[in-house]
Amino acid sequence: MLIDTGSRVLVETPTYLGALQAFAPMEPDVHGVVSDEEGVDMADLTAKAGGARFLYVLPNFQNPTGRTMSEARRAALSARARELGLPIVEDNPYGDLWFDTPPPPPLTARNPEGCVYLGSFSKILAPGLRLGFMVAPSALYPKLLQAKQAADLHSPSFNQRMVWQVMQGGFLARHVPTIRARYKAQRDAMLSALAHEMQGLDVSWNRPQGGMFLWARLPAGIDAVAFLDKAVAKGVAYVPGLPFFAEGGDTRSLRLSFVTPSTDEIRTGVAALAAAIRQELGNP
Amino acid sequence: MLIDTGSRVLVETPTYLGALQAFAPMEPDVHGVVSDEEGVDMADLTAKAGGARFLYVLPNFQNPTGRTMSEARRAALSARARELGLPIVEDNPYGDLWFDTPPPPPLTARNPEGCVYLGSFSKILAPGLRLGFMVAPSALYPKLLQAKQAADLHSPSFNQRMVWQVMQGGFLARHVPTIRARYKAQRDAMLSALAHEMQGLDVSWNRPQGGMFLWARLPAGIDAVAFLDKAVAKGVAYVPGLPFFAEGGDTRSLRLSFVTPSTDEIRTGVAALAAAIRQELGNP
What we know:
The structure is a homodimer of 284-residue chains.
Chain A: E1 8-11, H1 17-23, E2 29-32, E3 35-36, E4 39-40, H2 42-48, E5 52-57, H3 71-84, E6 88-91, H4 107-110, E7 115-120, E8 132-135, H5 141-152, H6 157-168, H7 171-197, E9 204-205, E10 213-217, H8 224-233, E11 239-240, E12 253-257, H9 263-280
Parallel strand pairs in A: 1-2, 1-5, 5-6, 6-7
Antiparallel strand pairs in A: 3-4, 7-8, 9-10, 10-12, 11-12
């Protein structure tokens, strides 16, 4: 609804691959804003905002990096976007999956008229229901309704009623803390395995405060796309980072998910990855 | 996937409004092929086919007209489309809802490599599940998969498994005949009520052999869009025909659905429509 052919769209660096794929059929001109561990850089955002239709951001436990936008960065981004007249599309499928403390309030809460907020039941209830929700300025609703009807008439009413029933019973309030505890233990298992297995290797990674993913970097000279088959041959898979960049990208980067495998499998998988790296470096 | 901005697309006259809405975000140049009670006219199709990406058709109990393409027309259309190198998108949500005899075999069965076939569980099981299916030439699958992933990743796996279970149990084979019998009785009730209530009025209608809709025409001088509010004031609603035309259109045309109301409600509704028409004509 916000994109015509050639429209300028801004995203984080890197950003969610699925968003780039969702935008692609409308043929936008997508630019990555320089980003650090807290999200987009204000100076680069300001330089690139001219004529942009919107900025797409994932402030909480971002896919693919697992990083979270700080309170200070959110305040700065919200103020700057308002000054620039730049709409923000805020995607928040992972925000409930915090490990120790909840993330800062969403950007949309700071400027509801300047933001479109996307929520999801996929990560807290079941991805197979394909249900999410949107909070948008009321002026957008007639066109949103038209676009939704054109796409699929409506989301399955059966699934909507089922989720409504589940929410009436308080299931989510009981269930989500069990996910948090499980994923936190699995993140810890992965961090611990990485610290142990990658000793002496030029491999770096971050420490997400929630969500499902950890962002890592292979030693110099190893391309994560080309290396994937060799890792799979050792019994471990990852998602190469390159497709998550709107422009260029770090060929050594990769995304590690810690939520589906058990802690034992995480230890086995990280050891397999380390073995594949050592073999690749001729250092078994 | 088949439309770029400005791409030429051919449809029946009239055609399914939801298809026009689904194509619209890609900004095609849509042309209506002259159509009669059996579907598209071969001469007009041939004249308009140059450069067209595809022809979209609903051969069985079409929405909105309820008409069905004859065996002869299907054979001619299939042969002509093949000669022209014109792909056909064949939409068949209503084909199982025949009243006396099944419709002729689909266009896709005659030339699978030149057609994309769309099926649905909405009309034979439950619209609230939002599940359908597609049969397409294998060369299209990589791009179809990419487009589906960009749109929604996948249709709800929960719903897919549920429908699969229902089909294992033979429910559809038992259930669909009950729908056919019910809709046939309701169509008959509507035809009978129209013959009775519209006596002396310049109102015409067709006699669909299946499906959910009947196509009618108001007396000269009554615009179906402008007249809708007056009909609703009398207690009956219909869908004006005009939005179903890709170009121009018959302002007197309208679609009557006979599937949701009971036979009693159908009689009441048709009587209310006749009363509204008489009042509009100053002939109470």
